[in-house]
Design a protein that fits this description.
By secondary structure, the chain is α/β, with parallel strands linked by helices. 39% of the residues lie in helices and 16% in strands. The chain is built from 11 helices and 12 strands. Helix 5 packs across helix 6 and helix 6 runs parallel beside helix 7. It is globular and about 55 Å long.
Length: 348
């Protein structure tokens, strides 16, 4: 009987290790996408699941809760980020009952069948002055959603964060001197302390495209991950702008006393039309090189050898997105599910 117990224990142990290794493999070996829905010609959510699985896309972000989407992704094993929309921040910030209701309505009915990994409370709220009306609600909303998860006993399964634009960074070059803008430091200090206390990641939207478009003194090859002479900063060699931008964020977090918080890149991409450098060739080069870089687990010079969980913006070209024409052309796929250009979603 004792021998049988030992065999059962060893079987369970081996099974747990296998599950853990499979989870780690999946986390490192699959790319994510932003599933935007600003279009009147997009495929059904069920078709989107099939498209993603066919292309080895293992992670998905939606900007607000959508019951049809969350139901469609049930049992797909695809990891999901669900957003609390900016327009909903005031309600969940002002009332714990409202935050509890948000989780009870938008998370509990779907988890764990739908593999919800994060809740992103607001998007680019500290992007000023555009979203100034939401700033005072951000931190209370984050805390209330966390409490709502705890009330639902989901706090160990789903992490809470908020996604930031790179415009929260005041100094980004060189990366080692990265700092947050003075106007956001108080809010950012509170957010970083929350993330550290709860084991949640910092979420950043990192677009070399916008940096290059705004400053043509940057070399295009450097922005596209093409071979280029390295830029050296405090002994660290940078061969692409993406790594430099990510490390500037890491330095900014360090400057506020938080050097070890993990980072998730919730958006990155390159448009294929709508502006002079928004070409199919550049978009194909950037996104394929980004995927290759992320899946290589090379990390960044500040954090070498660690995977950077990354979500490409966006899954589809969205014909109702705007106001700028270029915003309609960030998609990897057209609404008919055909690729805008060839993309390889794995290293194999």
């Amino acid at each position: 009987m004792e021998l049988l117990k030992q065999h059962r224990y060893m079987f369970l142990l081996i099974s747990c290790i296998a599950v853990l290794l499979n989870s780690m493999h999946a986390d490192c070996e699959q790319i994510g996408v932003n599933y935007g829905m600003d279009g009147n010609n997009l495929p059904s959510a069920g078709d989107v699941v099939s498209l993603m699985k066919k292309n080895n896309i293992g992670k998905m972000r939606i900007f607000g809760p959508n019951a049809d989407v969350l139901r469609a992704f049930a049992n797909s094993r695809i990891e999901v980020i669900v957003g609390v929309e900016n327009k909903g921040l005031k309600a969940v910030a002002s009332s714990q009952d409202s935050a509890n209701g948000w989780v009870n309505d938008n998370i509990k009915p779907f988890y764990p069948s739908t593999n919800i990994k994060y809740i992103a409370v607001g998007n680019e709220v500290l992007e000023m002055p555009d979203n100034a009306q939401y700033v005072s609600f951000l931190v209370p909303a984050i805390k209330n959603i966390q409490t709502a998860l705890e009330n639902a006993n989901l706090q160990n399964n789903i992490k809470v964060s908020t996604a930031h634009a790179m415009t929260v960074i005041g100094t980004s070059s060189p990366p080692s001197k990265g700092t947050f803008k003075d106007a956001v430091k108080d809010s950012m200090s509170s957010i970083l302390q929350f993330l550290q206390d709860h084991g949640s990641p910092f979420m950043a939207n990192v677009y070399p495209y916008f940096s290059y478009d705004g400053d043509r003194s940057i070399k295009l090859d450097y922005a596209l991950f093409n071979p280029t002479p390295p830029v050296v900063d405090e002994g660290l060699s940078y061969t692409n702008l993406f790594d430099a931008m990510v490390d500037a964020v890491l330095s900014a977090m360090e400057s506020l006393g938080h050097p070890n918080i993990p980072i998730v890149i919730t958006e990155s991409g390159w448009p294929s039309a709508g502006k002079d450098v928004a070409t199919i060739e550049n978009a194909q080069t950037y996104n394929n090189n980004l995927i290759k870089h992320v899946l290589s687990n090379a990390g960044t010079p500040k954090r070498p050898g660690s995977s950077i969980e990354t979500y490409i913006f966006a899954l589809f070209n969205e014909n109702l997105k705007g106001p700028a024409e270029v915003e309609k052309h960030f998609g990897l796929f057209n609404p008919d599910e055909q690729p805008v250009y060839p993309v390889k979603f794995s290293l194999n």
